[in-house]
From TrEMBL:
The chain crosses the membrane at residues 166-189, 209-236, 373-394. Pfam families: T2SSF. Its main location: membrane. Residues 67-190, 270-392 form the Type II secretion system protein GspF domain. Gene3D superfamilies: Type II secretion system (T2SS), domain F. This is Type II secretion system protein GspF domain-containing protein. It is a multi-pass membrane protein. The lineage of its organism: unclassified sequences, metagenomes, ecological metagenomes. Keywords: Cell inner membrane, Cell membrane, Membrane, Transmembrane, Transmembrane helix.
């Protein structure tokens, strides 16, 4: 699903601008007409606009959980959807939640469905969220669907917070170490080295390497390289093709240290998304299409899409998944058991729980190993600098003793 900028005329003859998520340009125009808007200009978000949208703020996952939970509570208490959105918008201290809520309330008051209104904010509400809301509207159980959606998002948020929390200490250590090493190379090393310049002695190799590194960091080249790296990353994010992303992700998923993390995290999202969609009567083909979209690793997503297309041809989900080498056999067996017993949604949920547990355990083990590794590596770097500075002094002392 792509994002489209649009300009349109409403029933009052006023011009409106915004963003709409749709599968194609023609579909976007049709959806605007369904909203009783006359399209004037509709165009896919350009690379220029993408540059600004990289920095565009969206509702964070944590705030999205709170927003969805509040909306569920208010609507289950008999408050109308538009009124509930206005209450959330007026009381929220978060700018994005406030703007989104009040805009959504206005759209519903204009006669749009909640599903149609959500499509104006594709950066905050993905296809999974919109599909679940659509299912809730069809079933007449909006508060129940929102509660289930909030629980699903809450699980994702908890995993995200656990990872962030685990990385804070190593990240602080690494930053402090880089600052200390940088200060030593820029200020301490040059002042010490200047004392050896008039000795007419060959400095040890380690000391010469340290001097070269110090001069490099102190010079303009380091800034040029830094700018070049960040510019390359930005250009790649803007113009990088899907094929390039797939190649890079393919290499990442084959690295032994990262393989387990990437597979478990992505497949957990896939199976839990598929479970909640099927639980709410989303057709299997559409549910698979939406669920594969939650897989962030493009290489794994491509493999899933190519294999799961067989489901549209009548093949079973378990058999299709068995052709994806990255999918653990236990997950395939659970899906097969679910299809045979008619409890597919339950088995998908169990598979997601298993994958989440595997991911959390491997993350905990990795973090326990990472912390001492960071200390040892950074300690080794600092020790290397100290040795490089002391070697000429030892060499001078030896020469004076010989003399």
């Amino acid at each position: 699903m792509a994002a489209f900028d649009y300009e349109a005329i409403n029933l009052d003859g006023k011009k409106e601008k915004g963003i709409i998520a749709s599968d194609s340009l023609e579909t976007a125009r049709r959806e605007l007409r369904n909203r009783r808007l006359a399209p004037v200009k509709v165009s896919e978000v350009s690379s220029k606009n993408k540059l600004f949208r990289i920095f565009e703020r969206k509702i964070s996952l944590k705030n999205l959980v709170i927003f969805t939970r509040q909306l569920s509570a208010l609507t289950s208490g008999g408050v109308s959807l538009d009124r509930a959105l206005r209450v959330i918008g007026e009381q929220s201290t978060n700018t994005q939640v406030k703007e989104h809520s009040l805009t959504l309330a206005s759209r519903i008051e204009e006669g749009f469905s909640f599903t149609e209104a959500l499509k104006e904010f594709p950066q905050s509400f993905d296809r999974l969220y919109i599909s679940l809301v659509s299912a809730g509207e069809r079933a007449g159980d909006m508060s129940g669907i929102l509660e289930k959606t909030a629980s699903y998002l809450e699980r994702r948020s908890k995993i995200q917070q656990d990872i962030t929390g685990a990385l804070i200490y190593p990240a602080v250590l690494i930053c402090l170490a880089f600052i200390i090493v940088g200060l030593m190379l820029i200020f301490v090393v040059p002042s010490v080295v200047s004392q050896f310049e008039n000795l007419n002695q060959d400095l040890p190799l380690l000391t010469r390497l340290l001097i070269g590194l110090s001069e490099f960091i102190s010079g303009p080249a380091i800034w040029l390289i830094t700018i070049l790296i960040f510019s390359s990353i930005l250009l790649f994010k803007l113009f990088g093709s899907k094929k390039i992303y797939s190649i890079i992700d393919g290499y990442l998923i084959k690295i032994p240290v990262l393989k387990g993390f990437l597979i478990n995290a992505n497949l957990a999202r896939f199976t839990s998304s598929l479970s909640i969609l099927r639980n709410n009567d989303i057709p299997i083909v559409q549910a698979i299409e939406i669920s594969t979209g939650t897989v962030s690793n493009s290489y794994l997503r491509k493999n899933l899409e190519e294999s799961l297309i067989k489901v549209t041809e009548g093949d079973s989900l378990a058999n299709s998944l068995s052709n994806v080498v990255e999918v653990p056999p236990l997950v395939t067996q659970l899906v097969d058991s679910g299809e045979r017993s008619g409890e597919l949604e339950s088995m998908l949920s169990k598979a997601a729980e298993f994958l989440d547990l595997e991911f959390q355990q491997s993350t905990k083990i990795a973090m326990n190993l990472l912390e001492p590794m960071v200390v040892v590596i950074m300690g080794g770097i600092v020790a290397g600098i100290v040795i490089a500075v002391l070697l000429p002094l030892i060499q001078m002392n030896n020469l004076s003793l010989i003399g």
